[in-house]
Amino acid sequence: MLVRQKTYEENNAKLYMVGVPIGNYDDMSYRAVETLKNVDIIFCEDTRVTLKLLTYFNISKPLKSYHTFNENEITDILINYIEEGKNVAVVSDAGMPIISDPGYVAVFEAIKRSIDVVVIPGPSAFVSALVGSGISSRKIYFVGFLNSNDNKRKKELEKLKDLEETLIMYESPHRIRETLEMISELMPTRNICLARELTKKYEEYLHGTASEILEVIDEIKGEIVLIDFNSKNTSKILSTITSLIELNLRAIEEGKIDMLELPLNSLDAYDMDLLDKGIITYIPFGMVTGSSLLYNLGPKIPVKLSLVGDVVTGFSTDVTEYGINNALIKLMIDVKVDTRVILPIISEEINIDASIPIAMKVVQGKIPDYYMNGFSSKSNISN
Questions:
Q1: 166-171: strand order across its sheet
Q2: Which CATH class is domain 15-123?
Q3: What does the alpha-carbon distance between residue 307 and residue 245 come to, in Å, rounded to a whole number?
């Protein structure tokens, strides 16, 4: 059955879902203040928290507790107030009602009973965190709070890791270390943003992998929002690149030239012959001695390569100035490989750490008048 609500056409009592600040009282909207002044009663998550807010704005109204544990039984009382002609507001301790807070049951029942529902928009922690994170908002998946049980929380993350959307989740300070450790284990190369104490004095955004944020996590306190960079496609890219690097290094190591995933027509016959023997090059024996005098002397000896451990890949960005008021942004793939170079008499471990640019974009800013026209009348610079 179609239900059509035209909120402001009827002069009936209504249910007001009111957004309140998430930490900074200055974010309270004029409309929210006026709404709370004019309703007959306010249902709130914690009467002590809401009383402080009302006192700050010189509002005096009856308060009734309305939280997760009593939502079902109190909703009938709330709806009865409206049916008796009283305007009712619902607020949470911070942000918008229903968003990881009580309120859904009240709205559901109000619609079912043809009671108008008026939403007074206000601050939202996950929206603020997403905007400040610099992570794509084209497709998002709001998780809310993960399960408090370790095993169930890990299973949730395992299901979430392959989603294409940017993931947004809340986490409490006393569980954040364990959650980051799980993310680090399940998604080691994933770039995430941790936002804390939003709109408050110690507001902070931390960008990096879960393992990088774990290095400073003991310093982190307060309310936390985790934003997880869209993962599925980027993970596929990294997985493919990692596999190709490992495959080629293993093929070179074992002399299996037919397994190489690279354009063989770019190699000459000499290189092909070397790789077929598992040799990457020949060097003069004098080079091994470390003496500059003997550097190019002596017989040629073969150099072989062995992969040590795993290939590690990840994404990074580099931003540099590019002319007047412009910036050049590079998207890089970072590759870390531990190898062992093997000669007939010695072997040595070598760590290869490279950043390979895969995309670049110039972001153009407005060029000031004094650059365009010299010291024009519009310029603030005087001789």
A1: 140-145, 166-171, 224-228, 191-196, 204-209
A2: alpha beta
A3: 10
pLDDT tens sequence across 64-73: 999 888 888 8
The confidence score (pLDDT) of residue 217 equals 86
Annotated domain spans of the chain? 15-123, 126-230, 234-364
What residues contact residue 227 under an 8 Å CB cut-off, 6+ apart? 129, 130, 133, 135, 166, 167, 168, 192, 193, 194, 195
pLDDT digits (tens, 9 = 90+) for 79-117: 999 999 999 999 999 999 999 899 999 999 999 998 999
Q: Which residue has the tokens 């709130």?
A: 44
Q: How far apart are CA 252 and CA 326, in angstroms?
A: 43
Residue 210 — φ and ψ, nearest 5°?
-60, -40
pTM over 0.85: no
Of 152, 146, 161, which is closest to residue 228 (Cα–Cα)? 161
- Say which DSSP state 4 is in: -
Q: Edge-to-edge, what's the strand order for the sheet holding 300-321?
A: 281-284, 300-321, 326-342, 347-364
Report which secondary-structure segment, H or E, holds 47: helix 47-56
88 in Cβ contact with 81 (< 8 Å): yes
Q: What do you get for the CA distance between the two ends of the chain, in Å?
A: 75
- How many DSSP H helices and E strands does the chain contain? 12, 14
Cβ pair 65, 47 in contact under 8 A: yes
Burial class (CB in 10 A: 0-12, 13-18, 19+), 217: middle
Listed residue (194, 183, 267) closest to 224, CA to CA = 194
Two tokens at 259?
């397994």
CA nearest neighbour of 347 among 253, 208, 238: 253
Which top CATH class is 126-230?
alpha beta
Torsion of CA 214, 216, 218, 223, to 10 degrees: -80
Q: Which of 23, 63, 67 is nearest to 45 (CA)?
A: 67
Q: For the CA atoms of 324, 316, 199, 49, what is the dihedral angle to 10 degrees? A: 170
Distances (CA, A) of 334 to 13, 207, 314, 315: 60, 16, 5, 6
CB atoms within 10 A of CB 104: 13
Q: At residue 335, what is the residue type? A: V
Instruction: Note the Cα 276 to chain centre separation in Å.
Output: 45
